[in-house]
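[job 4417] fold queue: 2 targets
>>> target A
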Amino acid sequence: MKWPIRFALTAAALSVMLSVDVYVADAQQRRLSADQAQIVSAVSAVYQAAAEDDLTKFHAVVAPGFYLYDAGKRLDGDKIMSLIKSAHAQGQKYEWNVTEPDVHVIGNTAWIAYVNQGSITDQSGTIAVMWLESAFLQRTAGIWKIGFMHSTRVPANPPPSN
């Protein structure tokens, strides 16, 4: 077989193999088990409860003793809800979205890392915001509850990643 034909066939084979790998990785990333989907839903429910200032809904998805690290501080569950409610009263609105979830389940415990893509709206307008976040969850009586969350706001011009 001549060199140009062998090169073309090798390139075509590599292209097919790489596209299959990308497809499989993409499909695995999108497919969540029932537990993983429930975990993503629990995190999303925390944001919905906060958006609605609904402490009852919030308590339904967090474990006793829940706390959060955000803005360089430790905030207990009711404290964070109080701060958000106060911000809402001042005209601020938050949008939070769980994207790119990476969920790991180990028995009755789990952790999730994700990108929270949202926005903050106030009198001056709306700005897009991203946070890198994670949470630890425990399953109690078949229900996933959040015990701990951590949030790091991504700067408007983040440094290049390695």
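>>> target B
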Amino acid sequence: MRETPPVEDLGSGIWSIPVPIPDNPLGYTLIYALESPSGPVLVDAGWEHEESWRALCSGLEHMGSSIADVRGVVITHFHPDHSGLAGRVRAASGAWIAMHQADIDLLGRIDDLRGGGQRELEVSQLRLAGASAEEVDLWAQLDPRMEPPQPPDRPLADGELVDLPGRRLRVVWTPGHSPGHICLYLEDDGRLFTGDHLLPGITPHIGLFPFDDEHDPLSTFLESLGGLSDIGATQALPAHEHRFTAIGPRAAEIIAHHEEKLDLLAEALGSTPSTLWELAAALPWRRPWSDMHALARRMAASETAAHLRTLERRRRAIRTTGSEGVLHWTAPSTAPRSTAEATPAANR
């Protein structure tokens, strides 16, 4: 568990408020409060938990404000450690909640699956991925997922300025970790709030789910990473770990990490069809595949699927459908030998 840092005044009317994520190895989410004449605007809101709520309220009081003064909450993406408290902030202050339209649309689809539909989708997808009957049964017995966050009332689009009086906080659409993930560039200060898109020491989960969906999240992630250097920001303020300045080099490092993983996965493909489950099990992970919990295996399979989709787009993998609809992949007979020969990433 990471040690929670203190509330910090970062200058130029920006405050860092660490909000705990109880029982999670990430430890905390860094919430940023930006001062304005009409009250602070928050970048993210933190996990829905009493301990998290107390930390957020205390942090605002430390900067001389209160939860009732909050003008708005900009959510970098819909995940619960970023959006969980947004509804509670709105109830306490009347604040607006803003999120990119693509994540708002995704929340609508999640809401449509409530009442058992989500679990049915998970089970059907595991069967398509080639998971064993025992694995599918284990997943079917898991508790339902957390409730989705409160719906935002302000959709955001790429390039739009956030409602922050006296400042220029611009939306930079950076899909990949979620379809509507955004970074936020404070143009009058030169700092970039990167959410989970760009972190100094870890990489965000890039998954494809459902496994038979046709979008390409990894390619859009790599493309949006590559464009961060062009913004000209002087410092990155991420949602986890710590602030850093080497934005371009760190983005290049993460791109190289995924290119290496793509090459490793391409080498695992052969002329004999392999299921997603078999390919995910063959890759190296922080924990051995046999020791992974059911949720960790599903996330690993989702990440493997995202890399397979990019390999398909680059003509380095071929997908087929076997018996009972199970998906398989093989290596093409004339696959490009390097990423330089691959087709360009799909436009976002």
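[job 4417] complete. Note on B: The domain at 8-108+147-253 is CATH 3.60.15.10 (Metallo-beta-lactamase; Chain A).
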